[in-house]
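Subject: Sanity check before I submit

Could someone independently write out the structure tokens for this chain? I want to compare against mine line by line before I put it in a report. The sequence has 361 residues.
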Amino acid sequence: MVYPGAHHTRFHHALGAMHLMQKAVQVLRFKGIEISEEESEALYIAILLHDIGHGPFSHAMEHSIIENIDHEFISLLFMDVLNKEFNYKLTLAIQIFKDEYPRKFLYQLISGQLDMDRMDYLKRDSFYTGVSEGSINSQRLISMLNVFEDKIVVEEKGIYSVEKFILARRLMYWQVYLHKTSLVAEQLVTRLLKRAKELIREGIKIEVSPALNYFLNSTVSKENINNETLALFAKLDDYDIMSAMKSWQSDEDFVLRTISKMLLNRDLLRIEIQNQEFSKDKIKNAKKDLMLRFNINESEASYFVFTGQITNQAYSMEKETINLYTKSGKVIDVANASDQFNLKALSKKVIKNYMCLPKTN
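---
Independent answer below. Compare away.
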């Protein structure tokens, strides 16, 4: 919607992340860290499959097709199915992916503040969008990795590359991942599916693919998801949603028709972003205007007038820090060692409020 060049897929990303993992294993072995053939193979499998649980439009629809289930949970379900299929050869990969393996640094390579996942997507997204601020030197970062007391550390001389990585992450969130147009589009796609579910549950027939129809008709939760559901989920992709939108743009229902047209014609809602919360009066008046303009009820108007929050935290000091390994054998948090940028300021969570409403013209 925002960057015409951003046509890269999760398949690209999975292969790229695995390539970086191979480089990381090579570097660590060269530095005398023992990683067995079984462990390295498990790392490659885990990073290759880490995003396999993403559904259509990825994060935008993470909780709308299947309720309250995140993609990591579905990734694990797929891994379990593949494990049985491949004679339990994925057991170690699953153990590492779930952080249940004794050697904790292996898990950090898959999911940590400086993991191969982030190193690949930052550089890849920066390249395809053309947002050069997100470009990081992943090769340099990987060459600086080491292990100390079963934790991934970065050699002291890699401090500037780490600073660049944290700053790049912050800028990519504001300029790409939390871009206002992308944000509105994501919200509309989620609301479109919510409306489709509502109509189907009221007994109204709408055109939809068999796989998508199953999820719109069913309430799938962690408790009742099974291999049959998983097989149907695997059939879903962006095209199911896009073809549904093309049918729905001429549907009788105002909400379904209007949101589909907005997304297909790239004529989205207006968005306002500010630090403080929006007043209840402003929200109420915007809804009232819309109800009068199109003769719709408040419930329908809520699909077009809504508020929410976005957060950006490039570096979290609470969860797990990025540690530097000095020549004297000391380990220090990069935020305390940094002299070029104030990384402590970058570790603060920034919260902004947004309000979406129809354009006035």
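---
OP: Matches mine. For the report I'm noting this point. The beta strands are 145-148, 151-155, 270-274, 306-312, 323-325, 331-333, 350-357.
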